[in-house]
Amino acid sequence: MHSTETYPIGTPGQPWGEAEKKAWLDQQVVQRSFAEEVLTRLQDLPAGFTIEQYGALPIDPERYPLFAVRSEEWDPTKPNALVTGGVHGYETSGVQGALRFLSTEASRYTDRLNLLVLPAISPWGYETINRWNPEAVDPNRSFRADSPSAEAAAVIQLLEQMACEFLVHIDLHETTDTDNSEFRPALSARDGIDQGIWDIPDGFYLVGESACPAPAFQKAVIDTVGQVTHIAPADAGGRLIGEPLEQHGVINYAARELGLCMGLTDAPYRTTTEVYPDSPLVDAENCILAQVAAVTGALDFALKESGN
């Protein structure tokens, strides 16, 4: 485990320069196959969906294409739903949950809404099991104009080209033990600011948009996921990852201000999922099913409330 004071790259208290970022990049290695675990599964989608490439990562465009899955018959009279996964590539169930939703549940919604699913926004991060991109940039702090993240910028450009409004947006994430053992110490080293560590919640929780909290929507998603896996309890101070609890299993962030993917649209119903894959109470399959349940719970609530 790396501590925030002894991270092996850089000098404590001094932000990284280009030499330190290169040293960090040189340490990253491919640990799994994006082609085998993601791209091959996109070839077996059910009827009614089309796959479109919306970009590629500059570090290796052939190896890391960016694909969107959308309803084949895009009907402008129907509401639109956006599902994003793999913004943080290391968060496995975000990617695999989006793919599982497509293969098992998505077809039953296409008569009532248009679906846009971006299952693996950060494929280099998926292969290297990383939170950051190759430039040591966190894509999920980069969804803003002039984004420093190629991953985020490609998504922003796609949505600008589509020029449509969304009824619901659900962004699939995980909180893992490596947040404390690797990623927060790396953040401390990169920025020269001690981030400390946080208590990792044991269970599923949601992060709502503080500017549009939609508490009834968040509760509906929690209730649906609670049928599949356990919901994280608050800590002794009534918080999750340092944030005050809004309701059972839900905290709120200023997503747009922070450049989070969840803040990318003006969808009245939006949320970020957080699965805890290191819990002794779950396995990889349960984590995937929790993500699928979150998506279906979100879509069911949004459709009901909008009268569709």
TrEMBL record:
InterPro entries: AstE_AspA_cat (IPR055438), Peptidase_M14 (IPR000834). SUPFAM superfamilies: Zn-dependent exopeptidases. It holds the Pfam family AstE_AspA_cat. GO terms for biological process: proteolysis. GO terms for molecular function: hydrolase activity, acting on ester bonds; metallocarboxypeptidase activity; zinc ion binding. Residues 26-308 form the Peptidase M14 domain. CDD domains: M14_REP34-like. Its cofactor is Zn(2+). Keywords: Carboxypeptidase, Hydrolase, Metal-binding, Protease, Zinc. PROSITE patterns: PEPTIDASE_M14. Gene3D superfamilies: Zn peptidases. Belongs to the peptidase M14 family. This is M14 family metallocarboxypeptidase.
